């Protein structure tokens, strides 16, 4: 049986459909990821990471500029306050993850499975 080539208009139509499908599935997966409840719980950690980046970059950039001691003390107090706030947010997030995800979705199923294994 001889090889037959696909007409150019059919090939273009199929490839356009494939590109649309790939683009559509990528955006659907991205939207599903962003709508996932776990992302909402990561927001405090993301905010803390951004704050750390800002603080470190300002320290690195501002090393050569002379700053009065009072401003340094005030900035240090502000950074300590912000880090304490984000530390509390991280602690709250960790507790929420432990209670809402690890407990019901990890500990309980494993415990049930182990009990079934031990009983049988």
Short description:
This protein is mainly α. It is 87% helix and 0% strand. The chain folds into 2 domains: 1-35; 37-119.
What layout of secondary structure does this protein have?
Elements: H1 8-35, H2 37-61, H3 69-119
> Total strand count, please?
0
End-to-end span in angstroms? 61 Å
Averaged pLDDT, please? 81
The number of distinct structural domains comes to: 2
| Oligomeric grouping of the chains | single chain
Number of helices: 3
The gross shape turns out to be: flat
Structural class: mainly alpha
The helix content is over 70%
Major sheet attributes = none
Question: How would you characterize this protein structure?
Answer:
1% of the residues are buried. The chain has 120 residues and is an all-alpha fold. The longest helix is centred in the last third of the chain and has 51 residues, at 69-119. It is built from three helices and no strands. The chain has two domains: 1-35; 37-119. The radius of gyration is 27 Å and the shape is flat. The chain has helices at 8-35, 37-61, 69-119.
Q: What brief labels describe this structure?
A:
87% helix; mainly alpha; single chain; 120 residues
């Amino acid at each position: 049986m001889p090889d037959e080539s696909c007409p150019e208009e059919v090939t273009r139509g199929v490839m356009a459909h494939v590109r649309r499908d790939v683009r559509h599935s990528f955006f659907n997966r991205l939207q599903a990821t962003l709508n996932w409840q776990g992302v909402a719980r990561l927001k405090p950690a993301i905010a803390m990471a951004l704050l750390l980046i800002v603080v470190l970059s300002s320290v690195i950039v501002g090393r050569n500029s002379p700053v009065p001691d009072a401003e340094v003390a005030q900035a240090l107090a502000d950074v300590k306050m912000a880090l304490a706030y984000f530390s509390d947010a991280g602690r709250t997030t960790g507790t929420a993850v432990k209670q809402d995800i690890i407990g019901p979705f990890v500990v309980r199923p494993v415990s049930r499975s182990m009990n079934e294994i031990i009983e049988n």
